[in-house]
Here is the input.
Amino acid sequence: MNTRKREVLGVGRTAEILSEGEGKVLKLFYAWVEPEWANFEFMAARLAFQNGVPMPQPFELVQMDGRFGIVYERARGPTLLAMFSRQPWRLSALIRGLSALQAGVIRTSGDGLPPVKRSLEATTQRMIESGDLPSDKGAEIMARMRELPDGDSLCHMDFHPDNLIFTERGWMIIDWMNARCGSSLADIARSALIFQIAGPPSGKRARWLFEWAGRLVYRTYLREVQRLVGFSMDDLKAWLLPVAAARLAEGVPGEKGRIVRLIQSLLM
Here is the structure.
C-alpha cells in the first residue's frame, strides 16, 4: 500500500485512525499488534455489516510499512461520549438510545464468530497463571463459567459510549476487535462493567461530568436494557464475574483495584 501522508484523525490503544481518501479511513494497527488481530476484526466487521448492523462498511484489509490495517467507510460525527459532555441534560435519553442499539445487535446472529465463553475461559486461565487472580478465586470463577449458557447472539464485547458515532445516517458502531458469539448477557455484562469501573476520560470538564453522572448512567442503562431484553439481575451477575476477570487482562490504568473488589463481592 502506498505511503502517502495521511491525516491522523484519532489514536487508540491498538491502532490509529488515518484519513484514506474521499469517504474512507484507515484503521492502522500498531506494529506490535499481531496480524491475526487485524484479520479477525476485518472478518467480524464484515459479518456484522452483512447482517445489517449499523456500522461503517469495512472495505479491505491492507498492509503498510509492516503494519496491518482495515479500510473503513468514514463515520463523521461526535461519539456518544462527546455528546454526554456537550449535552449533559440529554444523558438519560442518550443512554436509552445506546440500550436500544445494543438490543438490536444482540438480536443478530453471531454464527461464524468464536464462542464468547471459550474466549473468557482462556483469558481467565491466563490471569490465574500470571498471578493476577489467586488460584482459588480463579478456579471458582472457571467452575461458575462452565455452568453458563452458550447462546448464539452477536456480542460486540466493547459496547460503550466512545464506540458509538452519531452520523448523518444515524448511529454507527465501531471497533469490532472483541466481537464474539454467545449469550446476550455476556455483552450486557461487559457494558455494565465498563459503566461501573471505567475511569473518567481526559479533560477537566469531561472528568467532572463523568463523576457527576456515573451512577445515573449505570442505573439508567441497567433499567432500560433490562426492559428491552428481559433478564434477571442474578443471571446478569453470573456473567459479570467472568467478564470482570477477563477485563483484568487488558491492564487499563486505574482499573485493577476496582475490578478485584468487584470480583470479591461477586464471590461472596
User: Anything to note?
Assistant: DSSP finds nine helices and nine strands in the chain. The chain has a mean pLDDT of 91.
